[in-house]
Amino acid sequence: MTRTKPGNIHLGLKIAAALLLVLLDSVPGYSQIVGGTLSGTITDASGAAIPDAAVSIKNVATNVITNVTSNAQGIYNAPNLLPGSYEARVSAGGFDTKLVSDIVLTVGAQQVLNFSMKVG
Asked: Do the Cβ atoms of 52 and 67 come closer than 8 Å?
């Protein structure tokens, strides 16, 4: 009969615990998502991008306004908006202002809202 020394048992437990920690540390964690994203492209009637257009996104319940600007390709992005009802107003030099209401965002939503602007 072979006897195991007490020190060997503790060493084995320490090694097993260390391996378990390494394995658990390598499991990807997931962040909690609390809002939604509203994004899209702003173009003129011919489909050309409108850079530097001002997009104002208002939470109807709280009246909190998020302002973003379209990039050189006419793309805007407004992440981390709380769930709720919104309206979006877009304005750009030389174009009529456009308003869209009744936009509903839910948790994790990635809603696309494109705007085609008319010359004003």
From this structure: no
Q: Are the C-beta atoms of residues 111 and 79 closer than 8 Å to each other?
A: no
Check: CB of residue 32 under 8 Å from CB of residue 107: no
Cβ within 8 Å of residue 99, ≥6 positions away: 87, 88, 89, 90
pLDDT in tens, 11-45: 665 665 554 444 445 545 455 678 999 999 999 99
- Classify 88 as helix, strand or coil: strand
Q: Which two tokens stand for residue 29?
A: 């964690």
The H or E element that residue 87 is part of is strand 84-91
Residues in the chain: 120
Closest listed residue to residue 41, CA positions, set 6, 8, 76, 82: 76
Alpha helices for 1-120 (secondary structure H): 6-25
CB 94 within 8 A of CB 119: yes
85-98 pLDDT, tens digit per residue, is 999 999 999 999 99
